[in-house]
Amino acid sequence: MIYKLKRKSKKEKTLPLIDKTGAIIKKKPDLKAKLDKEFSLFIRLRDAMPNGYFKCISCGQIKPFEQADNGHYINRQHMNTRFDELNCNSQCRHCNRFMEGNIQNYRKGLILKYGETKVILLEAKQGITRKYSDFEYEQLIKYYKALNKKLRKEKGI
Ligand SMILES: [Zn+2]
Description:
mainly alpha, 4 strands, two-stranded antiparallel ribbon, 6 helices, binds zinc ion
């Protein structure tokens, strides 16, 4: 007997992801993006002063909390330091977005904030490959979410 195949509409043509056992894989939420969001908020809340302002790590200007970026000293493409609390600091938009991070002054700001030894140790972390498991992502997201809630309350932001 010949069965006529049902013609599929264009919408149905997108094939679902299937694992080795043939089960359909549900697309996971982007855990990296979720952690980026919580971690960035944590850095900005941590660096916020009680009056709702922050000081840019690079140029030292005082600006409102709403204008803070989470600025990475070592570029965020390096996973080993992407979520490093020392590598990330509140930075003004001008330095972060228009001055390529204002890196020379960022380094000076880091030394003032943490001391030279810690900065040198941070720089040594560059170039080391680091992969996060889904479990690590989930735990870190949970950790920073709770911390952000606490910080928001404390700082009234
Ligand atoms: Zn700045």
